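Notebook entry, structure prediction.
Reason for the run: the old model in the group folder had no record of what sequence produced it. Starting over properly, with the input documented here first.
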Amino acid sequence: MHLEEVAVLVGHAECVWHASWSPDGSLLATCGSDKTVRIWACARNGATHWDCVATLEDAQNRTIRACEWSPNGQFIASVSFDATTVIWERRGDVYEVIASLEGHESEVKSIAWSPSGSYLATCSRDKSVWIWEADPDTDFECISVLHGHSQDVKFVQWHPTDDILFSTSYDDTICVWAESDDDWYCKETLKGHASTVWGVTLRADGERMASCSDDTNVLLWQHQPGTSADGRPTSWQPLQALEGFHERSVFSVDWHPTLNCIVTGGGDDGLRLFAQDKAESPFQLAYTHAHAHAGDVNCVRWSKRDPTLLVSTGDDCVARLWRLVA
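New structure, fully documented this time:
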């Protein structure tokens, strides 16, 4: 398998941090240091030409670090270094701010909608994770502030089917959060990386997870209840370490929606594909694109509607679209 570049999305004036596909795959949102969210639509069959159809701006006054579509495609949430989270509602071709959520004391780094759309999670340099409840009348209320990390929290991701939340941090750990009787608690802290954990991704069935780190490695985890050396219950066990394939930090990782394949991007400007030959065989390097961007690769995301389509964003101020060729 390999990747073929099919389009370059030019429009951001500075570094592009993040990208998010709309649920139906027809739109792509990107955000960056220029304090904007841009909405892109495919203008031709084959995904070779995309137009910027909307620019969301003037709602946040510092870098927009991440943006995510809601599961129903009606909202986009964006988080910023100005410590705010802004909720945009899509009304046809128009996007309107309906809420600005405040509470974090420092830069907000990541945002994630729960699979049902009932919850939002945000995380910050202030070392906390906030969980917000989104009810049908578009009120957003913080229902829990989680303190489980000792340093900057970099990334949040929900389990694909359950209300379980994962957060990663500058403290080199992954926290697994669950809810019991309306209280959220850290049920497990995963250790294995030697430096900042930049992100995680879960397989569609939620049984396996990959994490990426400043230590240049990717770790694979298996959902398997067990007991730790000190007698505590555990739910995730280390499965495999992918070491030595990136020369610098691995900033982003994403599990393919239908294949046992993951993509990574990092500070060496490159993309890597790892895949399994058979269901239970180890992951192996399947493809390397050494110079995918002219700078750090900050985000990689597969389209769930068209699983052959991948977006990557970079410090070179562009988003690039790639076609997976088997």
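Summary: The two ends are 4 Å apart (CA to CA).
The old model has been moved to the deprecated folder.
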